[in-house]
Design a protein that fits this description.
The chain is 15% helix and 30% strand. The chain contains two helices and seven strands; from the N terminus they run ααβββββββ. It comes from Ornithinibacillus salinisoli.
Amino acid sequence: MGCGCRKEGAAGTGNCVCDILREIVDAQSDVVENCCDTSCEQSINELLGETDPGNGLDTVPVILYCKDSCKPFKGFGANRDNGIGTIGELKASFVFRVKRVDEDCCAVLELLRTPGDPCTCDHLKDPCDQDLSELENTGICITVDLDCFCHVTCLPAISVID
């Protein structure tokens, strides 16, 4: 029994999380070379400048929910500490920038964090624990299978690209 997210015969993949994330990637690519009823549609319109042209926004931050538990997904990763062969501090985030979605609904997500946010790994219990005041790119990317998710929450469009 699925979570009711698939729409057989609908345009796209039939996986609503995958289709929305692909739409976000396309919109973000339109903004950075390289009236709506839902938060995702509103955020995409903001990103594309349909509500305020020239707003400088380049990212729709997303929170994903695991299909089996219906809980927010927390991703983990680490930057290189001092070059190749060294691992920096492990960091976690519930908030991501979608970098890429392939034809099999696998996505590359970048962890977004506020610099200096003291909550890392186990101290970050749910999205409300995470400081969202000034999200920035971390350079930490993970690959996920979008078939494992049943819900996506889009936060308001922001600017994180320098």
